[in-house]
User: Fold these one by one.
Assistant:
Number 1:
Amino acid sequence: MPPLAAGVLSNLSGRKNETFEVSVISPLSGALNNCDRDLAYSFDDGPSIYHGEVEMLFDNAKAKYTSFVNGMNWSCIYDENNVQTLRKAVAAGHQIGSHTWSHAHLNSLSPEQQDLEIERLEEALWKIIGRVPAYFRPPYGECDKNCVERLNKKHGLTVVTWDVDSGDSVGASPSASIATLNALKYPQPHMPLSHETYQSSVETVAPAVVPSLQKQGYKLMTIQQCLGGKVPPYKIIGRPQERDETWTCANNV
Ligand SMILES: [Zn+2]
């Protein structure tokens, strides 16, 4: 068992009788900003009320996406609609990655506070989907060398950023985002950034861009797949739990 998932495993100590699989060997090191092949469309800051539309679009297009989620950002991850959304996305083969508990500026936190940001979300996802993500995207792309090393070594996380920004979080219009993403040329690999918290990113940009990228020849796949499948998408795989009094976003860190 790697030391990497120590935080989560200590949280799981009350569940000794349950078998679970620890599947990570070692993460990809450094912070990766692009795929090895094809294109990994990603949606950050969820789960949001638009996530179901993202999933329907990608399922209908026979494509996969990656969702980097928070514990408490726009809503609480334990809300029942978020729980159902996440379970459905995992069942459909999309990838869920970590984006910290509270959408934190990691570089301004102490190592202990960084650990809390990682572990509190890991605990939530372990309970909700029975899986602990092996991939992480730092909010704002902010994670300096020490931060990346800590995430790699202590938490066993593969750290990814992006190579193309749709611009949705900094005020780009939907048509500007569509132009940015439609300018990508197959077979150059890409790892574009977008956010599922903006209605236009989900209802206007993605529906315009997904078919045109596919028409060029891109396979739209998860980040784990576009990085060659060398590291599995989840550090630990068990089974989802049932809601209890610990499923709360109170006492937010
Ligand atoms: Zn974010």
Number 2:
Amino acid sequence: MTSKPVETDVLVVGSGPAGATAAALLGMYGVKHILVTKYGWLADTPRAHITNQRAMEVLRDLGLEDKAVAQAVPQHLMANNVFCESLAGEEFGRLYSWGNHPSRKADYDLASPTRICDLPQNLLEPILIEAAGQRGTSLCFNTEFVDLVQDADGVTATVKDRLSGETYRALTVAPEWSIDKLGTHNAIQRALAARDAWQGRLYPTTNLRIQSSGAEVGT
Ligand SMILES: Cc1cc2nc3c(=O)[nH]c(=O)nc-3n(C[C@H](O)[C@H](O)[C@H](O)COP(=O)(O)OP(=O)(O)OC[C@H]3O[C@@H](n4cnc5c(N)ncnc54)[C@H](O)[C@@H]3O)c2cc1C
């Protein structure tokens, strides 16, 4: 481990939608920051995809709305949730969705100059990361957050270069700006949960995967 920590104002951990957006915004506002992320590249599956108007407004602020819209399914093609036997099978019913109900459409149109769209995470992240890099983010892939400690000098995070196995420290001298957003069950949440100030502000989530023959449904 190097004795002198790398200094930065903000350490962003993770290159998901939250971390990548934070980095792009920090770059836009000229705040010195480093983004570390655990793997060698970005999301390889769609995951988060419905992108609401508030999120689109952030992309608009970043000058990325057009790029996002160009890759997204537009709102009018997300008009229904369809319940069916299979993609080509019998349709049981459909509901208006995502602001497309005729009685609600005007509310959405008037609420914002932007529109809801469907932009999968694996398409959004490269747009954000490209913008972050162009705006001055120091991007460190294959770099894992391990732990943090806070003292009078700031927050010192230990991160590990997963290619070499070496660890080094990053000192964030503006800890009040620290941004953590890593989904659930991760190292940074555990580290923060250990600190009294964060107690009660973290919550667990559980994903359930249910397999069923369907025989008992609707009987
Ligand atoms: C299979 C699946 C399907 C999903 N489907 C949907 C959906 O249909 N609709 C929807 O809205 N949402 C969906 N989600 C949820 C959605 O992906 C999350 O809400 C969203 O990704 C959260 O964004 P985030 O930026 O907070 O975190 P994430 O996208 O989880 O990003 C976390 C980042 O932190 C990095 N990281 C983690 N630990 C460390 C560490 N110790 N050091 C450094 N980096 C680290 C990760 O590599 C990643 O880059 C799905 C998730 C999964 C897994």
Number 3:
Amino acid sequence: MRQITLSNGTTVEVECLSCAITSGMVEPDGGVVIETEHFHAHQDVAYPIKGLIILASKRHIYGFDELTEEEKMDYINLLTKIRKVQREVLGIEHVYYFYNEDTTHHFHTWMVPRYEWMNDFGRSVESLRPVLHHARNEMNDQENVNEVIKSIRMLIKALREERE
Ligand SMILES: [Zn+2]
């Protein structure tokens, strides 16, 4: 078991944070962005960047080669759906995707939007870590967090309308 401190300051003991979130045991701030039989998308508000989404599998797996055919289809469909509303609703022109198999959680893909201000931290992938660090430490003010929550609601609404 591992102790994890959530963004609201409470601590939980879980085996795997991704399992805890995708099973609904831990509710991410801002709620579920979209959920299917195999995947779960949410914003990690520990990094308050508008439109940043984490897409996690519901099964406790680590690698792409562990995905079933059905999960593969679900994954790519969800990823593209989320990408589409990020563009349409939040005007996000570019997104960085990353995913590492040696995670302490399980299979999850980060979708990190690229904004102008991020250029101060480098041009491309090299800026990712400093950008996330900056967001977590310097952008955690209530005003920005409210903006982020508002953008999550917009994404949720747009994704819901897509389905209808
Ligand atoms: Zn897990």
Number 4:
Amino acid sequence: MSGRYDSLKKHLVEHLSRASASYLKSALARCHDDPRAQDAEAQAAIGQAGVAVELMLKALAAAANPGLLFKDIPLEAKVFFHAPDELPAGFNWTPFDLDLREFAYDTISFDEAVRTFYALFPERKRDLRTYFKALSELRVLSVRAALVKVQRAELEKSVYLALQVADILSAREPAAYAPTDRDRKLLKAYDEERARRVREKTKAAKEKAGALKVDISFNEPPGREGWDAFETRCPVCKNWGFLAGWTEIRCEADGSEHLDFFADSFDCDACSLLLDDSEEMKASDMPTLFDRTEDLARWREDVDSREEEK
Ligand SMILES: [Zn+2]
């Protein structure tokens, strides 16, 4: 049955890619042609970028296995997706084939598609997580209400994320949108603007730090409350500042276990330095990966208590 499986997979990936390319072209046209787009114009383009990203993520999920794309499919279809090579030639596939090709079954949500993406491309979670979080909220608002005071920056962030995903998808699917030279210039300008923003933030923080009268030797690290927060010294004023992010356990080949904290924003109360994402942190030469292995026992207790609650 693997021929049928490959044919269905190709069909789904191609159609999702083609549809996403159409949305992405519209969002990019607004971004390229209207440098001052904001409010209603930006809202429409953010909505288009949101749909484009969702469809591209679903294409990537389907490319791994079409079974990842659908929810509540018949058990026979699940068997087909999990073990296509095990099914006999006479397996009656016809009842499901047409429905799946026409997307008659519910597909995974935007956030589920993002989680699937993180599982398939864990190395991209670190640099894209804040972008996915922002777009997840903005896309819903952009189709359900009016985005008042939405700035060009939000549109650029959405398009930046869409182009990153398009880069991955177009490398494996010809029907997907392949970023052009014009798009690459947009990404370069975005990177330069980020570097400029970080320089300005650092300068303002240094000025404020110069006026601080706090002796850092009395400054205690804030308490570690959850697994989505950690602390480190501020790169400007050396006080303790807050990191937001997430914690993950890592097992090495030798059997040793480590606890990693991945930071995707930093906030210092003392000098007001605020770095909004991991890319801004990197631009200020801050690390984004921190070792929390000393908290491993507490992490295990929390995992165990969460299991018991289930
Ligand atoms: Zn500081």
